[in-house]
Specification:
The chain has about 150 residues and is mainly alpha-helical. It has helices spanning about 1-25, 30-65, 70-100, 110-140. The longest helix has about 35 residues, at about 30-65. Keywords: Membrane, Transmembrane, Transmembrane helix.
């Protein structure tokens, strides 16, 4: 286990060093600060918005975990993570399209509609998973044989 951690740390450091080398050799110095600002904003957005939301949703779902199956919880958590990450990736395109661009072929699609459609599909998957989970939970709690009285 210790050897695997050391290998992972060394590989991580090498990848970061390679990324820094590529950054310095391919990006103009005037653009590095804009990139650094964007990366800092992404970290803050991840730590301040995405992570607490996913953890909170996970905690709420775990409370229902005794009644719903683990598969339902996995589907819901996966949909929450995918929806959040997709929104983080697509929102800059939506903002860039809103502000306008010099070349209209750079952002040719309606990203707002596409994001809403995909998020709606994820929501539908979550609703179906929850309904299936609730139906299965009710079937499990119902007695298999009706109680009878001998009297």
């Amino acid at each position: 286990m210790r050897a695997a951690r050391i290998v992972l740390v060394v590989v991580g450091v090498l990848v970061m060093a390679f990324g820094a080398y590529v950054l310095v050799t391919t990006v103009r110095p005037a653009r590095i600060w804009g990139l650094a600002t964007w990366l800092l904003g992404a970290v803050v957005l991840h730590d301040a918005v995405l992570s607490p939301f996913v953890v909170g949703a996970g905690l709420l779902l775990r409370r229902t975990g005794r009644r719903l199956g683990a598969g339902v919880l996995v589907v819901v958590q996966t949909a929450v993570v995918l929806g959040c990450v997709l929104a983080l990736v697509v929102l800059p395109e939506i903002a860039a399209k809103h502000h306008g661009q010099k070349n209209p072929t750079v952002l040719p699609f309606d990203y707002t509609t596409r994001l809403l459609v995909v998020e709606g599909v994820l929501l539908a998957v979550v609703v179906v998973a929850l309904v299936v989970g609730v139906v299965r939970a009710r079937r499990r709690t119902a007695p298999l044989v009706a109680s009878t009285t001998n009297g």
